[in-house]
Amino acid sequence: MNRVLVLGGGQLGLMMAEAAARLGLVVDRYDPERALLLPGTSDLAVPISWEECQERYPVITVEREAFPEEGLSADLAKSDRCVARGALQVIPDRFTQKSMLDKLGIPTAPWVLLDKEEDLPAAVEQFGGVVVKARSGGYDGRGTWIVGEGGDLSAVPAAELAGKAIIEKKIPFRRELSIVGARSISGETLFYPLTRNWHVDGILRLSLAPANACADLQKPAEQMLKGIMEELDYAGVMAVEFFEVDGQLMVNEIAPRVHNSGHWTHEGADWSQFDLHVHALAGVPLHALNVHGPSAMVNLIGTPFENAWLQHPGVVHWYGKSVRPGRKVGHANLVADTLEGLREGLDAWADVLPEGYQAVLESELKLG
Amino acid sequence: MNRVLVLGGGQLGLMMAEAAARLGLVVDRYDPERALLLPGTSDLAVPISWEECQERYPVITVEREAFPEEGLSADLAKSDRCVARGALQVIPDRFTQKSMLDKLGIPTAPWVLLDKEEDLPAAVEQFGGVVVKARSGGYDGRGTWIVGEGGDLSAVPAAELAGKAIIEKKIPFRRELSIVGARSISGETLFYPLTRNWHVDGILRLSLAPANACADLQKPAEQMLKGIMEELDYAGVMAVEFFEVDGQLMVNEIAPRVHNSGHWTHEGADWSQFDLHVHALAGVPLHALNVHGPSAMVNLIGTPFENAWLQHPGVVHWYGKSVRPGRKVGHANLVADTLEGLREGLDAWADVLPEGYQAVLESELKLG
Ligand SMILES: Nc1ncnc2c1ncn2[C@@H]1O[C@H](COP(=O)(O)OP(=O)(O)OP(=O)(O)O)[C@@H](O)[C@H]1O
Ligand SMILES: Nc1ncnc2c1ncn2[C@@H]1O[C@H](COP(=O)(O)OP(=O)(O)OP(=O)(O)O)[C@@H](O)[C@H]1O
Ligand SMILES: [Mg+2]
Ligand SMILES: [Mg+2]
Ligand SMILES: [Mg+2]
Ligand SMILES: [Mg+2]
């Protein structure tokens, strides 16, 4: 029995544990904040030591990019057994992440360091619209400031950010897409079809897969992700977020873990990204990925559980977390035979979702 | 958070824990043989006392019918919190089970007690062909002796079985069907469509759902299961196995738990029988059951894991148990848009299954 330990006590690790059970494998979770082990899908927390981890877990993975500087999770993330070890040295800092993309010759939004306040007006001069991003710690759009061409720079705390941010050119993208794929310990790779993503206030709200009109983009996307995984000697699932501009892909950012835009695979494919992640790490050979049909994933954000959700076709995943504004507390997956069928399903769901969802659900979904 | 404890350390409880995680609920498992708690989907066994169980688990359920006579599992199974308490007083003994069916006026194969050796020839005289069944402890056809009309009675250890078995009339059934349904703590009920089952050597080998040509049988089946659940004041999922004779249903036996013939619901419906079971116990309202299409479940029996299985559309569930002849070690689910599609899928699977599967896969499947 190949057991896997995941560092992090959140929903991604929980969904890995759930997926592992399908093939009788075990994923336990180490919660760095509470310094406790959560066995499998349980909340029965137990203390665990470095020695016990060494004995029990030949493979360690992560569900997030950052860990406390000290303590067991930091040690485990740096250990030989952690298959994200290389990625954790590069990805969490946008400076090293963007530098790696440049080195690999992978297209990404042009960027400069924000080292001193004056770098900001200089970048605006050079790029027109800009996006300022904290080098580390940002997610769901936190730590990101978007300033369109001729926009007001005063909202950006440039003095505070000096030495701790990068400035990107603001890209006039047509769509946001992402790819999720896996690399096994022995180097095999496998990819899901490109997914289209809609963000509201920097938070992913809706994903649709397979994204429409991606015939010429799928292979390049796979090649980029494959190159990144190889460069980082990574094993498990990794995701890349793209901008589509002028029919080409440009990398936005990399997530060295299962990714929110891959949650549709729970019901949309025979094997989900969580299955794939666990299999890649436990030595189960990667396998045929049969996609069931046009699939949508609606993120449930800062909203309490509604029984009415259960009355609609589709499946709710609920993380059992306390509800706070802007917090991802679950997701709902819909799969249909046709895009029209999916459209109908989303219309029905719109009636039982809080305000703010209708706009994105009714948006340019036809673009796919 | 409503936690549920399941008594039993096998695959059914494991699949409950897996299902619970979908809605952020927790099912932990108590293994009576090892007297240890298995938290969620993990194999990290921890000791637990009656007091801790009282504190942690408002609801207790079971994944099997029989428990050691003494010890924590026996006490928990008899406690107020165990929603199968009533069923466990009636179902495990075929005498009390059949008596209840007679009392409820539910059709079942005619039967008598085997109290002394001479009861056997007398029953043969009365019934023609007979099936002798140990009153308790039998499963997968163990503890069952089938003797056709004019057949040889000497294979039945009648002296040994005296006082511990019943004798049923052998029913010339056209098909074996089953129904799986749930009753919530508040008395709501919900049912999956009737499933057709094929047994080989007394062990379920293949299920197909929804079974064909059941328009007139679905409602009666639901009524019978509903009546049984109410009689036993049961909560959770329960299954009834039927014989179809002359277009009517006759109960074979009752399983007060999730059931092998409901495993197709893993991929064949939005919510599986394991979801339904946990929801019924955790107070999640029962919900729409959307069936995805013709579904097949192939039991994997006594055969080692094959990587080739992963190369076919369909999903393998593997229990992580050691492989022994006749032991259920996993199941594979296929879902298609049409019966013809399912037929093709099963043909492809036949190539990667051990000998002995082909006959049943190619059998009268067209009957559905
Ligand atoms: N260079 C850019 N040009 C245009 N829009 C951008 C740019 N960079 C980011 N954005 C927009 O801001 C969103 C958030 O940016 P980014 O993905 O870098 O932030 P994040 O907080 O790390 O998000 P996540 O939660 O995905 O980790 C993007 O999805 C995109 O909509
Ligand atoms: N009265 C009967 N007439 C004809 N066949 C019967 C009869 N009783 C049982 N059988 C056959 O034997 C099989 C096993 O019987 P039964 O379901 O009672 O045993 P079991 O060992 O409890 O099985 P399970 O594993 O389903 O609990 C049935 O599925 C059916 O094929
Ligand atoms: Mg990010
Ligand atoms: Mg992002
Ligand atoms: Mg039985
Ligand atoms: Mg039976």
TrEMBL record, chains A, B:
Keywords per UniProt: ATP-binding, Ligase, Nucleotide-binding, Purine biosynthesis
Enzyme Commission identifier(s): 6.3.4.18
GO MF, any single term: ATP binding
Catalytic activity: 5-amino-1-(5-phospho-beta-D-ribosyl)imidazole + hydrogencarbonate + ATP = 5-carboxyamino-1-(5-phospho-D-ribosyl)imidazole + ADP + phosphate + 2 H(+)
Top EC group: ligase
Entry keyword Ligase: yes
Pathway the protein takes part in: Purine metabolism; IMP biosynthesis via de novo pathway; 5-amino-1-(5-phospho-D-ribosyl)imidazole-4-carboxylate from 5-amino-1-(5-phospho-D-ribosyl)imidazole (N5-CAIR route): step 1/2
A single cellular component GO annotation: cytosol
Domain ATP-grasp: 98-282
One Pfam family cited in the UniProt record for this chain: PurK_C
GO biological process, one term: 'de novo' IMP biosynthetic process
Xref: InterPro entries: ATP-grasp, ATP-grasp_carboxylate-amine, ATP_grasp_subdomain_1, PreATP-grasp_dom_sf, PurK, PurK_C, Rudment_hybrid_motif
Residues annotated to bind ATP: 94, 133, 168-171, 176, 199, 252-253
SUPFAM superfamilies attached to this UniProt entry: Glutathione synthetase ATP-binding domain-like, PreATP-grasp domain, Rudiment single hybrid motif
Top-level taxon in the UniProt lineage: Bacteria
Record-stated family: Belongs to the PurK/PurT family.
PANTHER family assigned: PHOSPHORIBOSYLAMINOIMIDAZOLE CARBOXYLASE, PURINE BIOSYNTHESIS PROTEIN 6/7, PUR6/7
Functional summary from the UniProt entry: Catalyzes the ATP-dependent conversion of 5-aminoimidazole ribonucleotide (AIR) and HCO(3)- to N5-carboxyaminoimidazole ribonucleotide (N5-CAIR). Catalyzes the ATP-dependent conversion of 5-aminoimidazole ribonucleotide (AIR) and HCO(3)(-) to N5-carboxyaminoimidazole ribonucleotide (N5-CAIR).
Quaternary structure and partners: Homodimer.
Name of the protein in its database record: N5-carboxyaminoimidazole ribonucleotide synthase
Protein's organism: Alcanivorax nanhaiticus
